[in-house]
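Section 3.1: Structural characterization of target chains.
Under the original work plan, the team committed to producing a structural model for every single-chain target entering the pipeline before any wet-lab resources were allocated. The record below documents one such target. The sequence was received from the expression subgroup and is listed exactly as submitted; it comprises 133 residues.
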Amino acid sequence: MDIKAKAIQQHLKEEHGADADVSDLDPQSYDDCLYDLARITEVSRSWGDNLPHDGYLLVLTESERDERWNECLDNYIDECILDELPEQYRPYFDDEKWKRDARFDGAGVSLAGWDHQEHEYQIDGEWIYIYRN
């Protein structure tokens, strides 16, 4: 079982009381970090109603989390801030200072569309982060 599957297993046990083997679980074909909750439920029907049945789990290593978080913040700046900021003021906007301030809220705000929570687990010496989407 890879470390992401181990992290999902630990997450489901701690958050939902579900104890089952998810070693056969595969990520979505278009994103190797995204796991379908409906598929997780299908893999282990014995969990009953303890698990959420819709949405996805985004499962990231520390470097993947940092990269995606930075991409999310860059997208927000481009689509929400600079798009609304008059052209003459854009050269004065400091992207890095804004991102530094935005990071105080944590990665969950940017990466967990469902509940804005970040769940972290240390698996085999590596930090894995899980977000519900």
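The radius of gyration is 17 Å.
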